[in-house]
Specification:
single chain; alpha+beta; Glycoprotein, Type 4 Pilin; 4-stranded antiparallel beta sheet; two-stranded antiparallel ribbon; 3 helices; about 45% helix; about 15% strand
């Protein structure tokens, strides 16, 4: 600052700088808050779009004649992606159980995850033995082939399958995921 200026001019200059720095600080805080909210919302939206896209890509059990075709909402499409992801985790637990016990478990409760196996965060916290619609996953084992199905209830909240669909699913390759009327069905298998 120029010391040749009169005292009143120097005080005005200091006041202007102080005012400018104060306004700049307020603007930076506002910008930070806006950016934090935008990123937070954008991150959730990004995750939602990933699961929605995954849900849309799950093929029907019988493409030629869908048995229980229903119109899915955007939220249901997202939850299809969540269910498919959770079913893969459960399938890993079923295969682990097969390796230790030497047999297929008869129900999901037998492979109940440990206390640390709880999904936390987005969109809510709960054990993975319940599908995103609130229906318990159903395990349908086929001891003869060593294969199993993990079935979510979907928006209809029913895990029952027609016998013809069940047979065609057991005939399909292990690791595939299908949907039927909004229900997500994973085909898994154990090697004995």
């Amino acid at each position: 600052m120029n010391s040749n200026l009169p005292l009143s001019a120097r005080k005005r200059s200091v006041s202007s700088i102080t005012l400018f720095l104060g306004l700049l600080a307020v603007a930076l805080v506002c910008l930070y808050e806006w950016e934090a909210r935008r990123l937070s919302h954008g991150f959730d939206s990004l995750i939602s779009s990933w699961f929605r896209e995954a849900g849309r890509k799950i093929p029907p059990v019988q493409p030629a004649k869908p048995t229980h075709a229903i119109a899915l909402t955007r939220a249901d499409e997202e939850l299809l992606g969540w269910a498919a992801t959770e079913e893969r985790i459960l399938a890993t637990k079923v295969v682990e159980y097969c390796g230790k016990a030497g047999i297929l478990p008869g129900e999901i409760a037998l492979i109940r995850p440990s206390a640390g196996f709880v999904r936390s965060g987005y969109p809510f916290e709960r054990e993975i033995s319940i599908d995103p619609w609130g229906t318990p996953y159903r395990l349908a084992p086929d001891a003869a082939s060593g294969k199993f199905l993990i079935i979510s209830g979907g928006p209809t909240r029913t895990t029952n399958l027609d016998a013809s669909i069940t047979k065609s699913l057991f005939d399909s390759t292990k690791g595939q995921v299908f949907q039927d009327g909004g229900r997500v069905i994973l085909v898994g298998g154990c090697e004995f």
